[in-house]
Amino acid sequence: MFKRSLLVSSVLLLTACGGGGSGNIGGTGGGTAVTAPDWTAGVFPAESNFKNYCATPRTGADPYNNNRPFPDRAGTSMHEKMWLRSWSNNTYLWYRELPDNNPANFSSVLAFFNQLKTDELTDSGAEKDNFHFAQNTASYRQQTQSGVSSGYGISWSFGRTTPPRSLLVAYTEPDSPAANANILRGADLLEVDGVDFVNDNTNAGVNKINAALFPATAGQQHEFVFLTHAGETLTVTLTSADVASSPVQNVKVLETNAGKVGYLQFNSHIALAQPQLISAVNSFAEANVTDVVLDLRYNGGGLLALASQFAYMVSGDAIIQDRIFEKTIFNDKHPNRDPVTGRPLLPMPFYSFEIDYEAQELTSNPLPELNLNRIFVLSTGDTCSASEAFINGLRGIDVEVILIGDKTCGKPYGFYPTDNCGTTYFTIQFSGANAKDFGEYADGFYPTPAPTFAADVQGCNVADDFSAQLGDPQERMLATALHYAANNSCPLGVTGQRFSQQQRPDDGNGLSIQRHDPRMRAFLLENKLNQPLKLHADQQP
């Protein structure tokens, strides 16, 4: 049994966040007392030669690393670019497909990083790597470690991002400015600070919209006009605040025709979720639930170790029987050893103990178990990465996953978020496979009553429903899961029709954007009619 036999420090940093994008972060200047390194095509010096040599070194103590001094040293932007080049050549999963362009020809560090990715396509014609992005390190650590970010506590669902725009409230964080203003799921944004959100396409209007939607700091005040699902106009003035994320919400036990069914909304695989998931599982165990409906429709991923822990809590020792959760596969330069930690490659177990995520080690506190051999998962195109690994890991040990909703995002990949000079970079470094060696779901898991292909999952293809609140038994996706639990089949009228192309957010030019993608969370609306939106990434997915 994989209990505490593996060193958890080698896996805790493995991250599976959905998303991609680019941003105006990273140094562009040069130090005057340091000579910039030279580039030679095809020659890749060890990345350690350039690591932490920064155009603008940070000073003082790092509050997210036990107040140790920052490792930065005086360098140049060329040092930062050369580090990215060697680091990518060493660890990028598809390093053979990277261009080797002269870093000096790029105006900024981030511009150089943006092109350090493959431009190959999947079998369906989608981008092979749609998950390449960077983020300010301080913002990333604040969000992942404390769950705090500046805003109103609204998670948005984007329909169209060019006029006529469509932006709905997916859910709100408890005790946030939005929740306290009684802004409910399904509210449709009409106006921002007097600007017509749906149709305005002027420079001034777009700037106002962006300033209001994505406040950089707390204390900013803006007026919003919504059309509620009841058809009423709601005008509210919201003041941005440092909002704490609640990754687990709406935990409840439902009395149904199938018996007692546990439901929980799980929004993000961050460390803060661990005690909340444990509490939810304990409440389900006390109620003797016979089924669980896990709402992952807006969960863009996060820590793989947490996905492993929750998969253990669902199944338990008797079902797992020493089988693995996921094996990690790096590029062919590293068949046996993790290139980041240097440790031998060992499969990730189903972690059965609580994890101290700050110290990056297992504790002696055992996790609760539900001992279920079936679980219902609600999904959309925003269900990504660690959420998909959860599905895949359980399928690998023959726990029946019933998928209700839409096709998932398709990210069987992950990375070690890596800081250099105040920017954290995310580049695909590994793929994952379950205990049956399956990991080929780059085009997503697809729910269908009649599975045909390897990535098809038994279930029902149902569009997201904004007419009801999450956790309401009448909400379409949850109602479908409850029907299936009672009848072992999809409701009448639910077919194998694929909703993905109609329902997933699109900018009108074929650009599919995920709500948890950092591009989506901090995008710039394009001010030219019918042009794709410009994107940057300075917030955590």
From TrEMBL:
Domain spans labelled Tail specific protease: 260-411
Peptidase S41 N-terminal domain location: 82-120
Stored InterPro entries: ClpP/crotonase-like_dom_sf, PDZ_sf, Pept_S41_N, Tail-specific_protease
One Gene Ontology term from the biological process aspect of the record: signal transduction
Disordered: region residues: 495-514
Superkingdom, taxonomy of origin: Bacteria
UniProt GO molecular function: endopeptidase activity; serine-type peptidase activity
Gene Ontology cellular-component annotations: outer membrane-bounded periplasmic space
Name this polypeptide is given: Peptidase
